[in-house]
Amino acid sequence: MPGVGALLCRGGAALREAGIENARMEARWLLAHVLNTTPETLLRDPQAPVGEDAAARFEAALTRRAAREPLAFITGRAGFWTLELEVAPHTLIPRADTETLVEAVMARGVAPRRVLDLGTGTGALLLAVLSEFPEATGLGVDLKPEAAALAARNAARLGLSHRAAFLAGDWATALDARFDLVLSNPPYIAAGEIPALMPEVARHEPTSALDGGADGLDAYRALATALPGLLAPGGVAVLELGQGQDGAVGALARAAGLSVAGLRADLSGIPRAILLESGQKAIGGDAHRG
């Protein structure tokens, strides 16, 4: 019966040979997932025996990761903001860069009451914002029914079902409401660039969540058209940007009658979130302030 340490050595070597960065750490995460424990617990007793069934499941997980399937899809979980979320191959894996949008919302110092998340996927953005603003309610929309169902499961696990609803639809076309805050991490990769992305992304994450058309801006064109009818007076839209897209997206927004209220950079200094406002002012000045 193999021990924890031996399995981790073998697993780290296999992943390193497959070109995985941080191979030993990922092997530890996979074994912890198989054993339903934490990576820290594994390190306390490297001689602890691992049953044959668990060892076989670990080998199967290593095979999947060596084929460059994302770690999050193997474990079925990913962290975002302060939350742990269920993920699945029909949704984009939440990324740290996207947390920049939540930071931008927090930095405004304005508590939204009604929140809309377009292309919600796992529900990451909406649920993170709702976790920070206890008076807010929100709606997440995704084209894929299975994504909307997964986001609803995440809301239930996090105790946010009473404030979050999810529906499957073609973004804003089925909506007849206005919101204080509109969030979106739209597809923004130029179609021709997708095959050159990391194998984990190009081969395994949903193309529909990546493909922004020939120039990467198709989703922003749709958003610029929809946002004036979705934003309440005094409301703001916070959209994720691809690298170098802030100028083009700002121009699309201004052409639609929106104003650029600011940009926020990610930890690499890349403008990652753009804040857009409609020309309408809030009734009474503070109608949407917390």
Q: Would you list the SSEs in sequence order as H and E?
A: HHHHHEEHEHEHEEHHEHEE
The major pleated sheet works out as: 7 strands, mixed
Distance between the termini: 59 Å
Structural domains: how many: 2
Strand order of the largest sheet: 5-4-3-6-7-9-8
- What is the C-alpha radius of gyration, as a whole number of Å? 21 Å
Catalytic activity: L-glutaminyl-[peptide chain release factor] + S-adenosyl-L-methionine = N(5)-methyl-L-glutaminyl-[peptide chain release factor] + S-adenosyl-L-homocysteine + H(+)
Keywords: Methyltransferase, S-adenosyl-L-methionine, Transferase
Family: Belongs to the protein N5-glutamine methyltransferase family. PrmC subfamily.
EC number: 2.1.1.297
Task: Summarize the SSE layout with pairings.
Blueprint (H helix, E strand, L loop, with lengths): L3 H14 L5 H13 L3 H6 L7 H15 L4 H5 L1 E4 L2 E4 L12 H10 L5 E5 L5 H9 L4 E6 L2 H13 L6 E5 L10 E6 L14 H6 L13 H13 E10 L5 H10 L3 E7 L5 E7 L13
Parallel strand pairs: 3-4, 3-6, 4-5, 6-7
Antiparallel strand pairs: 1-2, 7-9, 8-9
Helix pairs in contact: 1-2, 1-4, 2-4, 6-7, 10-11
Protein model, in words:
The protein has a 7-stranded mixed beta sheet with strand order 5-4-3-6-7-9-8, sandwiched between helices. A two-stranded antiparallel sheet has the order 1-2. It is elongated. Helix 10 packs across helix 11. 39% of the residues lie in helices and 19% in strands. It has 290 residues and is α/β, with parallel strands linked by helices. The protein has 2 domains: 64 residues, Helicase, Ruva Protein, domain 3 (Orthogonal Bundle), CATH 1.10.8; 201 residues, Rossmann fold, CATH 3.40.50.
